[in-house]
Design brief:
Blueprint (H helix, E strand, L loop, with lengths): L1 H19 L36 H6 L9 E2 L3 E3 L9 E8 L6 H9 L4 E5 L1 H6 L1 H9 L4 E5 L13 E2 L2 E2 L4 H17 L7 E2 L6 E2 H9 L3 E2 L4 E2 L8 H9 L6 E5 L7 H14 L3 E3 L6 E3 L6
Parallel strand pairs: 3-4, 3-12, 3-13, 4-5, 8-10, 11-12
Antiparallel strand pairs: 1-9, 2-14, 6-7
This protein binds zinc ion (ZN).
Zinc ion (ZN) binds next to loops.
Length: 293
């Protein structure tokens, strides 16, 4: 009886922690330094398994409660619809987290003259001067925005997200944001106005802190490549199905992942359908979780 009670209590605790983290089944952002071929089997954001130990109910009640995980949000962002029947206006956004540049995507954007918004980290800029020169040589196509200094989740309390530690304090969140902006300035990029943190997850207080620094926070409405971990066909289908007003998130830093091939094909398919591509700086938008108002 006691054993059943304890097991049920622990399962309940795990479920409530998992739901508090507001996780979803497919990762949004790319934080895996290696190149995994499939989504992790552990649900992202779920707490690590804790060995079960029998504890008498009265002792359990007397134990101090663990600190609650911060409530994480993954804000949505949409752009103003065109309002024209059978006409789609879509904002393609790409994260350049770390690693390299995906020439499959970059070359299509340039050759097809597709405007896009690219979120870069200081780490990525340091390793990819050639791709940066392509961005800077095409100012009519590329809006460059801030993805942080070291690709650390912009959450101001300690928490593990998809296995990586958050910034953990307001000061560390500000450093992640400012460090990204400083690197952009040093690289000759115009001052960023949008910020998107690693993992695209925040807590409400970190959103307020980042906005106090003068940024709007870039959510998304369509997860195009599942953190660059989806297959080419699935990625192509997802992005090709973008609707009027969608903000698509995908990655431009994983040239060895199949997803990038799907991204490149979808861009061509959307253009063939007559899609109007816009950058975030060019259009009105609405975001939730107090990210843009
Ligand atoms: Zn990223």
């Amino acid at each position: 009886m006691n054993r059943l009670f304890i097991s049920a209590a622990m399962v309940g605790a795990c479920l409530s922690l998992a739901s508090a983290a507001a996780v979803e089944s497919v990762p949004t952002a790319d934080y895996f330094p290696a190149a995994p071929q499939a989504a992790p089997t552990v649900e992202p954001g779920a707490p690590a398994a804790v060995p079960q130990k029998r504890v008498a109910p009265q002792k359990l009640a007397a134990m101090p409660k663990p600190a609650l995980s911060p409530k994480l949000v993954e804000p949505h962002l949409r752009i103003l619809r065109s309002g024209i029947a059978a006409h789609q206006r879509v904002a393609l956004t790409f994260d350049a987290c770390m690693g390299q540049a995906d020439e499959r995507i970059l070359s299509v954007l340039v050759s097809e003259r597709i405007p896009a918004t690219i979120f870069v980290t200081a780490r990525w800029l340091k390793r990819n001067p050639q791709a940066l020169s392509v961005f800077l040589a095409n100012p009519d196509l590329f809006e460059l925005e801030n993805h942080g200094q070291n690709h650390i989740p912009a959450v101001d309390r300690p928490v593990s997200i998809y296995g990586i530690a958050s910034a953990g304090s307001p000061e560390a969140v500000r450093q992640e944001v400012q460090g990204g902006a400083d690197a952009m300035r040093a690289a000759g990029i115009a001052a960023p106005r949008w910020f998107r943190g690693s993992t695209a997850k925040y807590d409400l207080s970190s959103i307020a802190e980042i906005r106090a620094m003068g940024y709007r926070i870039a959510g998304y409405s369509l997860n195009g490549d599942g953190g660059s971990l989806l297959g080419a066909a699935v990625t192509e289908k997802r992005i090709s199905s973008a609707k009027d007003g969608d903000v698509v998130i995908s990655h431009i830093n994983q040239p060895t992942h199949a997803a990038g091939e799907g991204v490149a094909r979808a861009i061509v398919a959307l253009k063939a359908k007559g899609t109007e591509f816009v950058r975030l700086q060019d259009v009105e938008d609405t975001g939730d979780d107090r990210t843009t108002e």
